[in-house]
Design goal:
Blueprint lengths: L1 H4 L2 H27 L4 H7 L4 H9 L2 H36 L6 H6 L2 H21 L6 H30 L10
Amino acid sequence: MINLLAKKKTLFIAAIMTFVMFIVVMFVANPLIDGDDGMGVLALQLAFDKEIGTQVIDNWTQTGRQNFNKLIFTDYIYALSYSIFFASWLCMLIIKKGRENLIFYKLLLFLPFVAGLFDWIENTLELFFINNPTEFSNILFFIHSLIASFKWLILPIVVGFLIKLSFQENANTHPIS
């Protein structure tokens, strides 16, 4: 897996897709959903309380909820593209720094995919919630926000490791790494 993801072409395509999908999700889809600046979608992710979540989607209007149903696929694509992008970038740095045989770095490669998986789970739970908020469980809504929070925590951790790896010496120059 590491050699497949560590290709410049993979990184380039994933970077383009991530950028395009970021623009589509943040500046087109989310504003069409909440009828404002798109921050209502983030507010739903981090509401933690079903009543607060219900208030958030009540502010979206029926058209906003319909737009959510029509446009949710963009967030699934976005999650996949940023997962591949971050994993590819990590792979390239891990190989460049000579750390591809260390178990920690092999496990680190899964973090972007865990974030993407959490994003997909969050999207799916939101889809069920928006289409039937009264029947949706309070506990499940809380779990949804917890999953969204974990996603938002994992992404800066991945960026932190990208920065750390960028400034690390090559393992070949310092055998005690």
